[in-house]
Amino acid sequence: MSVREWLQRYDRQLKLLGIEGQERLRHARVMVVGVGGLGCAASLYLAAAGVGEILLVDPERVELSNLNRQVLYWIRDLGRLKVEVAAHKLTEFNPGVKIHALATRVTPDNVEEIVSKADLVIDGLDNWEARLLVNDACVKLRKPFIHAAVEGFRGQMMVVIPGEGPCLQCLVSRPPPSRARLQVLGATPCLMAMMQVTEAVKILAGVGEPAVGRLILYDGYRMEFSEVKVRRMPDCPSCGA
Fold first, then answer.
1. What's the helix, strand, coil split of the chain in %, to 5?
2. Which of 9, 54, 58, 136 has its CA 20 to 30 A from that of 123?
């Protein structure tokens, strides 16, 4: 991408972030763990923002039931690996961004190696066991972690910056019981993902005030937002030490 093209593409953002802020995005590497409803929308807008490298992590293949909310996948993509489909479309959308596809599931054996490759991690996961596993790795490796979760018309988001506030395990000490497939309105994860990307851009570009220690709650039934203060637990097994 030429300098002229770069200036034109990010013209509206440069007025907000300045050259230095946009350059910081260009040199950043963000991991999106889980490329479902949250991860599809988050990765698309990370690419739109000009984040230099995006690492997509997800072992699953596209299913028909994904298509009400996972906006990077279309009928023709059924049966294909999600990370491969997403990487191809994101590269077409913004060739100036490097997309890395990793078709694997995070486990206790690989999570630290995977997280170590990123400057910041976006939570696109759909289960608490994996979320807490990634949270632990981010705390240990001192990587910002932006959590979000959705159900129906409702969602939540929280920013974890190790050393500056509570982590996800301060909020949820142990994984909640497993449940059947959740009901999800397609627009709900898209909205929460936009909030995640907003926080990621702020952290990477060095602007604004991230939502550290604040659980942001969205209720689409009432179309209202609220927040709950989250305090760091001195005995938290993840960040307490």
1. 40, 20, 40
2. 9
Instruction: List phi, psi (to 5°) of 98.
Output: -90, 125
Q: Which residues contact 222 (CB under 8 A, 6 or more apart)?
A: none
Enter the pTM of the model: 0.94
123 in any annotated domain: yes
Query: What does the alpha-carbon distance between residue 33 and residue 29 come to, in Å, rounded to a whole number?
Result: 13
How far is it, in rounded angstroms, from Cα 67 to Cα 77? 10
For residue range 212-229, list pLDDT tens digits in order: 999 999 999 999 999 999
Domain limits for position 168: 18-229
Q: Identify the CATH number of the domain in which residue 86 sits.
A: 3.40.50.720
Q: Is residue 30 part of a domain?
A: yes
Are residues 214 and 227 in contact, defined by beta-carbon separation less than 8 angstroms?
A: yes
What domain count does the chain have?
Answer: 1
Q: Residue 232 carries which DSSP code?
A: P
